[in-house]
């Protein structure tokens, strides 16, 4: 419980004390958006690394060499924990926006940093608005901003299972002409959700698969791209779960 209190305190203080920095970042963005992207990434990564330290989480990262650094990518991952974002964001090599549920846009101060980081807020109940969000994500990747999406659509609360991957998520890579990076996360729910509200020191494995270029796939695989990527993540998940005894 002490870890939970420390993390909440740290996050609240970071959001409050970083308010002047938000203004500085806004001014920088008016003159040099590229510099703002890099500085906002560095600032939030600093805060996230402290959250990981306070949680006592050890991360085993595999396959980071598979992430192209000369182009934007679409990260596609399974989703079991709030910590999935914290644990993966500190590893991105370039500015990256996460697709989040629209409710996150209601959190004051946090929503400002999320917008600075090119995060998008998806309305899962409104098809028209959801399509607009996907189209915005397409423009982001075309402009060199990577996007991360959890195509299950919500946190999966059942261990060692996967919700169906939504096909629409993959339109970002197809229309934006960027590679898909399968991102398999193992044991992240053990940090927090499995013993809520306690935070437990544990090991999380994150593996990045080889880039998938949709244009290079055969016709049948393109039609079932969501199943294809889900199968890759599922196979990697159970392999690492057994390998690291998680």
What brief labels describe this structure?
246 residues; alpha/beta; Glycerol-3-phosphate (1)-acyltransferase; 7 strands; globular
Structure description:
This protein is globular. The chain has 246 residues and is an alpha/beta fold. The chain has a single domain (56-243), classed as Glycerol-3-phosphate (1)-acyltransferase (3-Layer(aba) Sandwich). It contains nine helices and seven strands; from the N terminus they run H-H-H-E-E-H-E-H-E-H-E-H-E-E-H-H. Strands 1-7-6-2-5-3-4 form a seven-stranded mixed sheet, with helices on both faces. The protein starts with a helix and ends with a helix.
Trace the largest sheet across and list its strands.
1-7-6-2-5-3-4
CATH level-3 fold name: Glycerol-3-phosphate (1)-acyltransferase
Largest sheet: 7 strands, mixed
SS strand fraction: 5-15%
Structural class: alpha/beta
The shape, in one word, is globular
pLDDT averaged residue by residue: 95
- Computed Rg: 18 Å
CATH architecture: 3-Layer(aba) Sandwich
CATH superfamily label: Glycerol-3-phosphate (1)-acyltransferase
Report the CATH C-level class.
Alpha Beta
Low-pLDDT residue spans: none
Number of β-strand runs:
7
The total domain count is: 1
How far apart the termini lie comes to: 22 Å
Element pattern in H and E: HHHEEHEHEHEHEEHH
Oligomerization: single chain
